[in-house]
Amino acid sequence: MGTAKPRPPGKNSVAHVQPLPDKTFIIDNGAYTMKAGYAPDFPPPEDEDKGLSACTTIPNAIAKSRGARIYVGAQIDTNVTDWNQMLFRRPLEKGYTVNWEAQKEIWENSFFDEKTVRSKDLRLAEPEDTTLIFTEAPNALPALQKNADEIIMEEWGFGGYLRCVGPSLNAWNEVQSIFEDPVLQQQPGFPVSPTECLLVVDSGYSHTTVTPVYKGQPIQRGIRRLDLGGKHLTNYLKELVSLRQYNMLDETYIMNDVKQSVCFVSNDFGRDLERTWEGNCTRGQPDLEEGVVVDYVLPDPNRGKKGFMRPRDPLLGSKKKQAILSGASAERISEDVLVLGNERFTVPEILFTPSDIGMKSAGIPDMILQSLSVLPTGLHPAFLANILVVGGNSLLPGFMERLETELRQNASAECVVRVRRPKDPIRFAWLGASRLATNKEELRKVAITRQEYQEYGSAWTGRKFSGAL
Amino acid sequence: MYHVEIIPNTSSTATPGWTYVRDKGFDPAKAAIAPSLGRKRGIRDTGRTELSSRQTNAIVRHLAELDRENPNNAPLVPVPARQRDPSRADASRGTRTKTTSNVRRVLQSQKTFRNYLDDEEAALAQAASTPGGPGASQRLPLNKITKPSSSRRSSTPAKTPRPEPSRSKKDIPLPSSSRNPSDNTIPSESQPQPQIRQDAEQSDSSLITSQYDSDPLLKSYIPPAPSERLMHTLLSEPPLTYNASRAGSPITGKSTRRFCCLCGYWGKIRCRRCHQRTCGGMKCYKTHEESRCGAIYV
């Protein structure tokens, strides 16, 4: 940290500064997956699917199988057959890029090394002729920001560079249609502009954040974070299942699949809990438990079978015995089944009621209200009516309904509450960034060039991206 | 350290090992009827409202467990070594110069997030003790931040200047295309965007006026949208620190729910020895008593 004030030459040199490179590459660097690809040319495609066709989701991890084989990035999705006892190393901790040793390896593998890059669209052949948009979680530590700036600009030497808060990029998307507002007709030839007020709830792998975004910029004082995300849900489910049924403590990946296929957010927690209690079922009301309790058949790597969910079969045990006696197909005998009852909804419940696991923190609806409470009241109606939920957890069934119900109950009655989710909540920030990239004038204002970095260094870069210059 | 020992009295020998406890968790109606225990709460039921340090430790440990990437004693997955083929390395590096000292430092750093966070906290503490230090201007230290507390305060922090009521319409430029005919017919409070609502208020003349319009009881209060200058101030604020941006304790005062430590149903009864909850089904309690009860499991 230098004691010097921002140096005045920053302004003088703008005149002869070199322009940003035309090509823009965007990496939304998430803890679980990174979303990457080149931004389209100027008139961005109207259609969301078309805009996303350039975006690829790559696991941001190095994995090690029980046979001690190492898989990097995209190889995890394609090359792995046996998921048992898979170990992962992720460069991001708590949502922030911490370990650049691992991150560099994954990036090299996915974007720079022509031997391993998956497609032409992901190859970063000439970083010096490319602008990089790199996302970070809000409230990042300055030391980590500095590390990112230095390695991106000094190791790969991108021609242009912008580091920005990931959730705020969502505001660049065309969100009016998601909120069923009249779509503002975009004049052909006019640059894309961000929406005015948007409250972004980003529930990801490491944490859940609330970011009020005003005209594409985050309002810093309103950003709040709940330190619970998809990872915690998976681990909690793993723990409950291991306590009640099989020991699954080593099977993080498999339990993640179980979570994605069985978990839901309950809209009537008490009723659902009654429906899954054994005590109620033994009193001759078998229909009560139907619908909530399910079986999950665990994957069988030897047969190359994937895990799947199916309705509860209470007679499974006796059927199995019969099958053994009658010498039926081995398939039926060898399958392992997890019975999932209240785990299905008590696990995602911790996002809404963290006190269930003893955490003294507000749940997501309360956190939204806390975020609003430090903003001028005049902004409350606009933010409450424009709540956008992104991130993988928003795909849990019932999540949106529950959030809207609880917010409606607690928010001021005069305000309209609208909670919406884009079609693809995981790649939506990337899509927003790709639309920002088509607005060259705006991008030029916030991004820096390689020349500027070489001239002023990383401390200046940090101040520039924090908006202090 | 003093030692508290509970001496069993003779009358309790015949009782089973569990007690019924009032379940305050899930029925708000019942919770409202039950009288508050008042000042003597701490004497009558200790260990339920306030967590003992042992319980707090258990929760912290549990949360750390949930935050874990891999199982407990798994070794760190190594980064595979790249083949350093000199000709290829040159080609892939392109016009890049050789690795700088910064890059080397960042790549070799084995610091974890915890280390970085501790560093920052230390730097902030130092900046706070020496006013006008370099860090003070960058980020607000913890104690200077208006953090929402559990008791609901005024929804607008004192620091924020109130938006002046007599603001002209040109404070916020309104895109002309957002004016659509429906704005004129719907009452203004249902409009999500304050700017559009402003617009609607101006064209209020098309609404039917009645004598109750100015009734203070019927009037809906809509705060004016903040001025451009205020928004500019808000946007140029530095980010909060990592710890300050964490969500506060819950606003809505729901009491903590307790669950059976085995099956996950409501924890209706509490073990007398270890204070863990189980559900009313005797199966769970039996299992607990036989295999899990005891101080070491708490």
From TrEMBL, chain A:
Taxonomy of the source species: Eukaryota, Fungi, Dikarya, Ascomycota, Pezizomycotina
Family per similarity comment: Belongs to the actin family.
Coiled-coil region: none
Pfam families reported in the protein's UniProt record: Actin
Protein name in the entry: Actin family
InterPro entries xrefs: Actin (IPR004000), ATPase_NBD (IPR043129)
UniProtKB/TrEMBL annotation, chain B:
Listed Polar residues bias regions: 97-108, 175-196, 203-213
Annotated region described as Disordered, given as residue ranges: 66-108, 125-224
Comp. bias (Low complexity): 71-81, 144-159
Residue ranges with Basic and acidic residues bias: 82-93, 161-172
Keywords noted in UniProt: Metal-binding, Zinc, Zinc-finger
Domain of life: Eukaryota
KW Cytoplasm (keyword) present: no
Keyword Zinc among UniProt keywords: yes
Protein's name in the database: HIT-type domain-containing protein
Provenance organism: Aspergillus cavernicola
